[in-house]
Amino acid sequence: MNHIISIHDLDRGQIDRLLFRAGEVTNEYAGKEPLKGKILGLLFFEPSTRTRMSFESAMLRLGGSCMNLGGVEVSSMAKGETLADTIRVVSGYADAIVLRHPKVGAARLASEFSDIPILNGGDGAGQHPSQTLIDLYTIRQSMSLDNINIGLIGDLMYGRTTHSLAYALTHYNARIHTIAPKGLGLPDSIRDNLEERGSSVIEHDSIEEIIGELDVIYVTRLQRERFPDPAKFFDVSSSYRITPSLLSDVKEHLAILHPLPRVDEIDPSVDCLPYARYFEQARNGVPVRMAMLTEVMS
Amino acid sequence: MNHIISIHDLDRGQIDRLLFRAGEVTNEYAGKEPLKGKILGLLFFEPSTRTRMSFESAMLRLGGSCMNLGGVEVSSMAKGETLADTIRVVSGYADAIVLRHPKVGAARLASEFSDIPILNGGDGAGQHPSQTLIDLYTIRQSMSLDNINIGLIGDLMYGRTTHSLAYALTHYNARIHTIAPKGLGLPDSIRDNLEERGSSVIEHDSIEEIIGELDVIYVTRLQRERFPDPAKFFDVSSSYRITPSLLSDVKEHLAILHPLPRVDEIDPSVDCLPYARYFEQARNGVPVRMAMLTEVMS
Amino acid sequence: MNHIISIHDLDRGQIDRLLFRAGEVTNEYAGKEPLKGKILGLLFFEPSTRTRMSFESAMLRLGGSCMNLGGVEVSSMAKGETLADTIRVVSGYADAIVLRHPKVGAARLASEFSDIPILNGGDGAGQHPSQTLIDLYTIRQSMSLDNINIGLIGDLMYGRTTHSLAYALTHYNARIHTIAPKGLGLPDSIRDNLEERGSSVIEHDSIEEIIGELDVIYVTRLQRERFPDPAKFFDVSSSYRITPSLLSDVKEHLAILHPLPRVDEIDPSVDCLPYARYFEQARNGVPVRMAMLTEVMS
């Protein structure tokens, strides 16, 4: 594996190997510096502190160094340089690059001009494979990935993370339950693709009607700006909110995930329940990205 | 000691230990890397280059690494995340955090949600304990901390550093002399607290009347924006200015401190006099912060 | 050599030594960490990602660490501090400083107040010695530096890099050919200085008339903002554009350089020709700056 651009490029074997390695990496490399002398370049054309920080932490934990390759506002792209030229230059400064870019396909394009591995740190509405691997890894900490019932809740129209996760779970024969406000449901093209790959996708009107059957709840943020009427936003968002009372009769191993930051989608009193896995999920960014970095650099 | 939030939390013994360690740390760890493999997270919600840089330099000198945890403008807080959630996430990426925040009490709050040590790098008008330790350390390089006469000059109303320093000096039985423009004197509550703790606080109308008795002069910046009338600012600021002629008859060991940056408060021709300790004070940020970092992380 | 401020300060022997070292440094220090424990401070008062990144990469490749000393917008200079004070403070945090500043002479001034080496990373329309060393190093990879014919193309009025390169080449007896739009030719004072130093400077009306004789073409960006009339800019820039057809009858070892970023000055189809040396030139920033860093710090 040279570049990691999209979760669609990875087969089940490759995903399983990365997840397994993420589970081993912290102990395996304790006190060692497998990437000592290596430089990870962080090329973020839009801000994404969590992605940047956990890649940076992962690289430092492996004994390597990081350098910021600059964002668009201070860079040569502001002077009209193409992404291809930028990549050709900065790939001379580092041993691998994490690229975050607002445009779909940017990471793939970059990989064609780079001598060194490109790790896609999110390209607009496109792919963000490390997030999907983190989601899978977090689920796998609580249960087998095979044959789970997962509920996707919130904005499933624009929520890139839910699309990639659902796609990846087709390798594991998941049943996918969707609960979304009107107009923010899963796009038909994505539903069709999931079903072609053998997953069932079941639409629900409320969380209550399905929550007892779920192994995983994946909550995403509803963005206020999708709702022209603020009152409407308030109504809708409150009915997609995870509260302790909603969780009174759920499976014992239920795992609640959220890509964070959350605003009001999960009541803070849920944080101390055993189902809450979202802070663990955020922290899992480090071992999962350690696994990715060792995969492409060693 | 786990977190370092406020100088008020430290007793005289703890302060003395940190100051002693600051004096030893450079030699003690020369060629060693006591914090190798550790990561210091810098979480600055407002800019403060000096504080950030000297913590960073201190961490690198100890063999550790630093990572920028991002400021508010690029962070998840801009999306409405609470400080508690931010801390819960980023404390998974580092081994200690220096927090700079515009709101009083932020560092204390952060410490309640963090698994790793929080070092307060300044919380608004609140505390900035490393600055106070640097001030004490710089005085201690020239004289014993006990029973000194210190003159606090400039804006004593809003000048956070002078409040904390005066407080800390009550452990050492200081006599505190204040010289401030009308309306910018030491707040009564702070004066009362200092006196309750056994220090005498004496107000003066001019620097000249007391300068011969002082062991330490602590100068702070007068901020133009506190004066509605620019001409008034000019008049006032020039009468609080430290010049060589003012220093013609002072104690031999007099130490002039300033938290920097200075603008016009100290004439540049003072820089080459033996009393000028403010550049040394700035550089003392490194050993003092090395002492703090080893205290909480090793 | 303590500071590196201007290419004018270096004699031919010193330049040759740095270029030689740049050629050796990657192999010589492979697996070693000659600057381990050292900190390079990056003090950039205006953005320059390429310069910053390649100094940072160079420092990391040598086993050292880097720290950002902050730009003007977040720094104490915004509060009215002088450059002298800033340098006196930050030179306590690092072992050498790369300074980028918008004002001519800033690096020289800084060197007078600094206890540690200052490397000029560009001071406005003034000097940028590491860029010139990179240019020389790149030429030297293809041919001897002595007695070359070099064509300087584009904006030679404001193009700092061409002035410094032409100056440095007078050590090597170069013949300098200039091809510039009206009003953007080489300033008379610079031409006179080059001729006094023994170089011939020959002005040409078009690239075509001289291209067959050139060993090196150095292309610079024409800036749209120099042309009040956009149509005029388009006309002029297209006649200073390097295309494959222009290169049909050139010397075999011709090297085309460009400080990058390029916009339209070089047709992308030139990239795959053997003459294109500009991406290599960008990458040469790392070994050349490694040579500079070891020169001043070890």
TrEMBL record, chains A, B, C:
Signal peptide: none
Domain named Aspartate/ornithine carbamoyltransferase carbamoyl-P binding: residues: 3-141
Ranges of residues in domain Aspartate/ornithine carbamoyltransferase Asp/Orn-binding: 147-294
Reactions catalysed: carbamoyl phosphate + L-aspartate = N-carbamoyl-L-aspartate + phosphate + H(+)
EC numbers on record: 2.1.3.2
Family indicated by similarity: Belongs to the aspartate/ornithine carbamoyltransferase superfamily. ATCase family.
Single GO term (MF): aspartate carbamoyltransferase activity
Pathway given in the UniProt record: Pyrimidine metabolism; UMP biosynthesis via de novo pathway; (S)-dihydroorotate from bicarbonate: step 2/3
Subunit-structure text: Heterooligomer of catalytic and regulatory chains.
Binding locations of carbamoyl phosphate: R50, T51, R100, H128, Q131, L260, P261
Keywords, alphabetical: Pyrimidine biosynthesis, Transferase
Binding site for L-aspartate: K79, R160, R221
Protein name listed in UniProt: Aspartate carbamoyltransferase
The protein's role, per its UniProt record: Catalyzes the condensation of carbamoyl phosphate and aspartate to form carbamoyl aspartate and inorganic phosphate, the committed step in the de novo pyrimidine nucleotide biosynthesis pathway.
InterPro entries xrefs: Asp/Orn_carbamoyltranf_P-bd (IPR006132), Asp/Orn_carbamoylTrfase (IPR006130), Asp/Orn_carbamoylTrfase_sf (IPR036901), Asp_carbamoyltransf (IPR002082), Asp_carbamoyltransf_Asp/Orn-bd (IPR006131)
Biological process annotations from GO: 'de novo' pyrimidine nucleobase biosynthetic process; 'de novo' UMP biosynthetic process; amino acid metabolic process
Domain of life from the UniProt record: Archaea
